[in-house]
Amino acid sequence: MWFTGSGPVVAWFDTKVFDETGNEAAAQGWSAQVLDSNGNGRRDAYVEPGEPMDPAKDTRIARGYYGVAPSPLDGSIWGSTLGMPGGLVRFVPGDDPVNTGLVEYYEVPWNTPDVPIQGYSPRGMDVDSNGIVWTVLSSGHFASFDRSRCDGPLNGPSATGTHCGEGWTLYPFPGPNYKGAVDSASADSAYYNFTDRFNLLGVGENIPLATGNLSEGVLALVDGEFYNFRVPYPLGSFFGKGLDGRIDDPDAGWKGRAIWTTSGSRAPFHAEGGTERVAPVFKFQVRPDPLAH
User: Fold this and answer.
1) How many helices (H) and strands (E) does the chain have?
2) For residue 110, what are the domain limits?
3) Structure letter (DSSP) for residue 214
4) Are residues 25 and 17 in contact, defined by beta-carbon separation less than 8 angstroms?
5) 219 falls within a domain
6) DSSP letter assigned to residue 48
7) Beta strand 58-61 with 46-47: parallel, antiparallel or unpaired?
8) Is 34 within a domain?
9) How many domains does the chain fold into?
């Protein structure tokens, strides 16, 4: 298990060790976030954040995870990191994660002249079956990052965050923008996202989904086009803060699988229905045709 909210380190809990020993101290651990800034392919002594780079040492950064997910492609651990412009951190544990773990940092393109669409401030994050990382941005974008598209070196003194603008693709969320806004794509606000790897919703495999927090729905990006699965009533009742999926019966077609979420508003009594309203659970399924039952 990989933790978020663990401060400027990568933290984990090994459930196998805990099941075998019952020792919670032995089952947990953490690693500093160390860039291989000297480019020798291994973790060495490092300078601390804010200190000048030393060509003989590596460099520690302090980028706490907000969203976290392992890549099914290579087992690396990705996390989103908040701030302006924010970015993604990739952690490779190595044989002894406490002492061998290395990170790579990829900053969201911002004030980067050679990147056509720019954004800022990620929140949620997930990884698809192909190792593509997806994150929602406060700039009104759904962003993907493909590490395999990076042209330059991924370690060394120049690989400190802004070295792979070509790995990013930003998709503006649908809907209107703020009047006069030039630094954002949409007024919609997506808090978190989920990658539907197994066609749980019914619109395909490896479909990135986002919570449309100001559009009362779940946003699915299908072949570059957004589908908005809205919950129009009760008015104000849907405010998703996370998504997950479940296959109850793999042989039951669309009826045996679904995307699930809750309404995460802290004030459900402000929705239609007033103080009698409680935060409901929502189940999303797409039938193969309108008459399917």
Assistant:
1) 3, 19
2) 1-172
3) T
4) no
5) yes
6) P
7) parallel
8) yes
9) 2
Residue with tokens 């935060």: 279
Placement of tokens 């984990």 in the chain: 12
Which helix (H) or strand (E) covers residue 284, if one does?
strand 281-284
In this prediction, residue 185 carries a pLDDT of 86
Q: Is the separation of the CB atoms in 28 and 94 below 8 Å? A: no
Q: What's the chain's average pLDDT?
A: 93
Q: Say if residue 10 is in the same domain as residue 141.
A: yes
Residues 99-128: tens digit of each pLDDT: 999 999 999 999 888 888 899 999 999 999
CA 286, CA 54: separation in Å to the nearest integer? 55
Secondary structure class of 3 (helix, strand, coil): coil
| Look-up of token digits 């989920």 | 194
Task: Clarify whether residues 150 and 253 are in a common domain.
Answer: no
Pick from 231, 223, 229: nearest CA to 207: 223
Provide the token pair at 236: 């104000």
- What is the pLDDT, as a whole number, of residue 226? 97
- Residue 135, Cβ density class (10 Å: 0-12 exposed, 13-18 middle, ≥19 buried): buried
Rounded to 10 degrees, the C-alpha dihedral 116/117/118/121 comes to -150
Mean pLDDT of 162-188: 90
Quickly tell me which residue has 């797409």 as its tokens.
286
Residue where a domain stops, chosen among 104, 139, 172: 172
**13 pLDDT tier (thresholds 50, 70, 90):** very high
